[in-house]
Amino acid sequence: MFMKEISLIGPTASGKSDLALRLAQENNAYILSLDSLSIYKEIDIASAKPSKEELSKIKHFGVNLIYPNEEFSVGTFIKEYLKLKELCEKEDKNLIIVGGSSFYLRTLVQGLSPIPEYSQENILKVKDLLQDLSSAYELLLKVDPEYMKAIKDNDRYRIEKMLLIYVQTGLSPSQYFEQNPPKPLINNMPIYEIDVDRNTLKERIKLRTQKMLEMGLVDEVCNLEHKYTRLPNALKAIGILEVYEYLDGRLSLEQMKEEIIIHTGQLAKRQQTFNKGQFPSRSLLDIEAIYKEASNFF
């Protein structure tokens, strides 16, 4: 069997996960999650990841990969995808890629530039430079002002990556990426985006937020804070930050709920804008229309 793959995207709470599960069960497919929070173990309610029952019905990948205090990069996601693609071909499975973090999908479609192998000497040199993050940023800004304008001066992760490239190759980031252009990892894959009207989406967000609270969101965040503190980036997501505000006494329980709903709605709008800009050839359809088209594709 020749492996077929599709992608389901759309704003948060639009029904992507349920649709993916339905299609996977009927079309002999595995599911790869694009969700940036579901990759973390122990962040179960705040991420709205599939339940244990749903995870047991269909094999999900890109879920529960690492702990909240561990680093995850788009490069790690690419490795997960390539490993899964090989598994699907070996086991005669199709693949459904689903989630709201379309940045990962864009990387699959556009590809990544190959990263040079760094010598231990240069890794230590960069580590030393990063002791003064401001000076490290200024160095890169002088070398490549246009490229570095898109990187914040406190973005340690990206500054480190650009420094490693510069120190290892002697090329500015712009020069390096020009000489090493990305290659797409997926070609001609159908991308379906769930089209949902604003009022329906708002109601779905309200219901999901209420469900998260009933499932024990506050207790989950308390446990995560106790175990990992508030420092990891994974613990600064919508649904977690608002609980911190509640725990600190700055919001009532009802105000916290409303803040989560508002911020989730704002996230949904950003996701829709991103998808429109990055995937102009996507099929924008309602859930049942996507179900029919995807079923015919498989």
Question: What's this, in brief?
Answer:
This protein has 298 residues and is an alpha/beta fold.
What this model shows, in words?
Helix 5 (120-129) packs across helix 8, helix 10 packs across helix 13 (253-278) and helix 12 (241-247) packs antiparallel against helix 13 (253-278). Strands 3-2-4-1-5-6 form a six-stranded parallel beta sheet, with helices on both faces. The protein has two domains: 5-111 and 184-297, P-loop containing nucleotide triphosphate hydrolases (Rossmann fold), CATH 3.40.50.300; 120-179, Orthogonal Bundle (Histone, subunit A). It has 14 helices and six strands. The protein has 298 residues and is of the alpha/beta class.
The number of helical runs is 14
Estimated helix fraction: 40-55%
Q: What is CATH's topology name of the largest domain?
A: Rossmann fold
**The CATH H-level homologous superfamily of the largest domain:** P-loop containing nucleotide triphosphate hydrolases
Cα(first) to Cα(last) distance is 11 Å
Radius of gyration: 21 Å
Domain count: 2
Helix-strand pattern: EHEHEHEHHHHHHEHHHHEH
Major beta-sheet overview: 6 strands, parallel
Mean pLDDT: 94
Unreliable runs, pLDDT <50, ≥5 residues? none
**Assigned CATH architecture of the largest domain:** 3-Layer(aba) Sandwich
